[in-house]
Amino acid sequence: MVFSRTHRGRALVALLFALPACTESSPSRSAQRADVGPTYHADVAPLLARSCGSCHVAGGLAPFALDSYESASGLADAIVAATEAGTMPPWGTAESDLCRPQHGWKGDVRLSPDELELLRAWRDDGTPEGDAAHAAELPQPPSMSLPDATVTLTPELPWVAQPGADQFRCFSLDMGLSETQWINGFQVVPGNRAVVHHVVLTIDPTGASLADVDETGSFDCGSGGTMDFPDPRVLGVWLPGGLPFELAPDIGVEAPAGSRLVMQIHYHTGGPDAAPDTTGVELRYTEGRPDYLMVPVGIGNFEKTEANGDGLQRGPNDTLYGARFFVPANVAGHTEEMVLTVPDTGDDGAPLPEIRVLGAAAHMHLVGTDLLVEVEKAPPWLGDGPECLLHEPHWSFDWQRTYLYDAPFESLPRLRPRDRIRVRCAYDNTLANPYVQRALGDLGLSSPVDVELGEGTLDEMCLAILPLVVPAE
Ligand code: HEC
User: What does the pLDDT read at residue 34?
Assistant: First the structure.
């Protein structure tokens, strides 16, 4: 850790790098002729392939395909409705006067206003098919397996998801490292897709997690991703349909000799006869020591205010006795705020290296609705107001992921000593919030309850995870 102030560091369910599959190719839209409106083969197919194709294909994450004229024209109304509402493709960040990050995002598959207009015009025209013989070229679907993987780690014994409640199993995988390596990419290879909900990968730098493993080859590891071994380092998170996570060739995440990789799998309940699961992980190592290290840092989930003003900030429902993380039942628009000042030195007292921010991820539970991360820059800062890193105004627990800036290293946002990182979270703890309804349903409750900081279904969090990059010294 460059600097670590997360009170609940162990509870970081950092849903990092869960990158739902999407293609990187740039918008390609054939020019419309003045006399003819958009057609499926000339205009709509390439757009759907680019922005929807990674999930809406046979065997994909989405429940139906959108890769033929028949499927797309039959669902034209739903396509227009979902894209105009902004629910499809799933994408969390928004840029507005509240937040204008310096850079765009990698893998941004959102539709432009022109593209939305095109879909609507096609639907309104009666979904003309156009000429299949002169169909526009479609972007290639992305590779789901990690290019140039160095190793594939798989548990020795398969796990059979149990009937009853969901389970969290941790597999301690031997990385076989006799010397330090640097992880430059990973991909999860799901086994039994019917039961695997998501996967969190954590480096266990001392290998201590082996002691937790029982005769099944794994151990129960709770709902919050609790890691009871020293110095857990979250590598990333994978959701079904996620593309491989890849860093630039000169960046790696350090895994010392003897490290193990702890693969935490959230299993759906297996039902009476679930097939065994053998989910594995592909890893790619850098060739030798990389120039830069990636270090994910969690900021937030503070329980109190620190002497220097950092930590949990005073909120709307606080008493004279100080700040408290408390989201009252039946209140919409409640906010909590977390602040962390970048220190002058690292944990070891040495001056901080040059720190750059590769991107950002938000994390809240089911009551949260909006999360914003900004940096109040220490002087000299020539910008106007704070620098915004991320804003997710329609937080969705189901679609959380890390957003990475589409920018070269030298122009990524920097963090300097005495910069104040501010994370502001808003909550809707009323029945108008469908996620609250879902959580109450899961717990057999009928009306909202007061919510505090914690790991349970109806506890909340306010956390930003910043994948930082520092020179490897
Ligand atoms: C990252 C995967 C992913 C991408 C990309 C994606 N979808 Fe979906 N889509 C889903 C899933 C999963 C569902 C099932 C409902 C849900 O979970 O929200 C869905 C549901 C839908 C629905 C059903 C109604 C609704 O709103 O839930 C429509 C229509 C739809 N998608 C259209 C699209 C279109 C059009 C695109 C591209 C412009 C697109 N989707 C891109 C995963 C995706």
Answer: 45
